[in-house]
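@channel anyone free to eyeball this complex?
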Amino acid sequence: MSPDSLTFIFLNTVLANNFVLAMFLGLCPFLGVSGRLDTAIPMGIATTFVMLVSSVCAYAINQVLVAFDIEFLRLISYIAIIASAVQLVEMGLKKYSPSLFRSLGIFLPLITTNCAILGVALFQTFRDYDFSQSLVYAFGAGVGFTLAIALMAGLREKLELSQLPSVTQGAALSLMLGGMLSLTFMGFAGLGGGHG
Amino acid sequence: MNEAQQAMQPPRASSTLMMIVLNGIAMLAGFLVVMTSQLTAPRIAENQRIAIEQAVSKVIPGATRHREFHLGKDGLRSEPGADTTTIYAGYDDQDHLLGVAARAAAQGYADMIYLLYGYDPTCQCIRGIKVLKFAETPGLGDKITHDAAFQSNFDALDARLAPDGQGLAHAIAKVKHGTKQHDWEIDAISGATISSTAVGKALNQSAQALLPQLLPHLQELRATEKRP
Amino acid sequence: MTRKTDTQITWKTFSEGLWANNPVFVMLLGMCPTLAVTNSAINALAMGLATTFVLLASGLLVSLLARYIPKQVRIATYIVIIATFVTMIDYIIQAISLDLYNALGAFIQLIVVNCIILGRAEAYASKHRPAKAVLNALGMGAGFTLALLCLGLVREILGSGSVFGVDLFGPAFQPWVIMTLPPGGFLVLGAWLLLFDWFRLRRQQKETVTGGQSDVA
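replying in thread with the prediction:
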């Protein structure tokens, strides 16, 4: 598989270079909103959605920046455009699809400061992805994030039923679980990276 | 601004004031950023030059200076173009051409591996590689940067051209650890096979494409020797 | 916050971020860089210093400008200010050392979305005088750097057998490679948090036993 092919980019971002478990992006929601499966999955879907939107925006703005040779404004424009894109999406959802807004809306403000979103925008630029590659990359990142947060939520729901020493309850335990998941996902590394 | 947002927010300060503040901040931000990028640009360029200088002197043993060229379909140019490859010609103190360095890249275990390799026209072989940027697993894949046995693969890696001049006589490829038989094979590091494969792939791809283009112009690189 | 208390600058203004409200160990903020770049002590230190610079500079500017910024656009303004300083430090690090820049990668630019910085700008710098805001930012930055170093040192010692690149154990040492890899980041931070929780729990138990404030969580 060529490293530029869409399948490769997708698999690589979902599994081998999972945004949460290998690149450490989007940890705040990963630790904060992974308590229950039925909130974790909407959160993941909302994040995927925002990633796609901001990926498109970032791709467009980067074309402009490169054309005018003002790349030093990249970071400022990315962060501004992502914040406004999320605002727009939020307002649009509220107006046209209140039911969807009710299920995803509360997560949207949280997502703006999620570093995974800016991460998608920055990494797709650093890697010189074209438009379709950027989209697939953003989608893969979102799916990877959803996968990680859903796995985590499932584990934590199970753990609620078991008896634990009081000192291990809280963030420390979540991090340990994250470590285990990350260890598991390392098995995917090298996927498509060669045939040796 | 539409009604939805207005409804959400408390009565606002005058929008002129808001415009003034936002514009002021934006101008201040722009000023600071431009100033920093202007001030640091020479240092960054210098750092990059030093990094390339070090890399070139490592992959072309004995080279003390280098010149940058851009190789395109129509030959060597001094300015980069859309279809050109950047090459670095390395010279010794007497301005003799020792070798040519070029970049290569391939997908490794975790991310792309970028490397610089030096081609020596005298022995028609690759005399050294230097990994420029990579994200390989520390302790395993990163052995490609410092493992002495692996690096010794590139003391004289055969990169002869095929008689028709369209590609390498023997494709550069990595072989399983301990089974290297020919000069064009790369002995993989055991435990870092994927990273080793990537290095082999990167070298092969780059050399197959670059060398047939480069060799007809070697004389031009030599001709620049005597000039200051 | 009245003007009178605001003028008092105490040791606590600084030390709050160092210990009682340590951004990483207590507030659990800014986890992404904490885990991502702490695979060696030098990276951890550089990241800590870069974040401190941004905290300090944005804290100062926000504190100076706060009264002129209308409430509705304050978050946008803060973000622009922060992004400006992050871009600056990005160029500065490139000018200092390319190796360091390559090691930290995109995580320098991702300082922008580090919740600590926006959090401090909104919750502290905008409500306090510049001197106080700067001191507090310095404390927070120091606390963040300290936390990063705690992780970086442990991960480098276990994972590469060295400290700041200096070999500790000699060639006989078999490095615990997983510690410098992503899972190691999770595990080491988890272990540190366990330690902190344990200390806190013990102190609380002692207080209840001696009849102090029976504030059991």
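from a first look: The CA atoms of residues 65 and 228 of chain B lie 12 Å apart.
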